[in-house]
Amino acid sequence: MEYSQDDYLMxxxxxxxxxxxxxxxxxxxxxxxxxxxxxxxxxxxxxKAHDPYLTEKRKDIIIARALPVxxxxxxxxxxxxxxxxxxxxxxxxxxxxxxxxxxxxxxxKKGKPKxxxxxxxxxxxxxxxxxxxxxxxxPEGAIFYGETRRREIVEITSxxxxxxxKMFQEMHQYYARHYTPKVKYSKSCNACSLKDLCLPKLGKAxxxxxxxxxxxxxxxx
Length: 221
Hints:
The chain is an alpha/beta fold. It has 8 helices and 7 strands. The chain has helices spanning 13-19, 21-28, 37-49, 118-134, 158-177, 195-198, 200-204, 208-220; strands at 9-10, 57-58, 61-71, 76-88, 100-109, 140-145, 150-155. Strands 1, 2, 3, 4, 5, 6 and 7 form a 7-stranded mixed β-sheet that branches.
């Protein structure tokens, strides 16, 4: 099955979807968004990585910034922060350049490596798009974290690929139905920029009256 471009979803949405399916739906289906300190720092990092005036070539590595990528098979599109085309014995041809090159995506993230897999899933999705576009294999990529100032190497495993495909299929199903999942409150809700729009605690309350009564008690304590 191949999707038409009108049905493409954003690759970056897989990170929201892994973190919270409701958050993804609020952003990508209901078009709601709110900034907090986490989203602002992340945006500044991506602006630097995507700056078209910061071109660079290191010996046998050609660096492409903000490279548009897509997959007809998965029905997604987006941009890679950085793609390094590394000269090698076997790989792909690049127009205007001699030799062969391997393809190596690098994603920029604020903070430090996460326990959850949302960052690695996004990188894997980018790698899978690059494979489809360039008819090559992308077995590895990296995530650069702003807090540690170092790259974390990520092997694009069969497990990551399988989860990426399953999640995009589920996202397409939700999007086609315009379905926003119900809230599932957890401690991670406190760091979400959409908590004031989502009202996760209200979703767990027995009733609005119970929720308001609880909030008033907390304020008086």
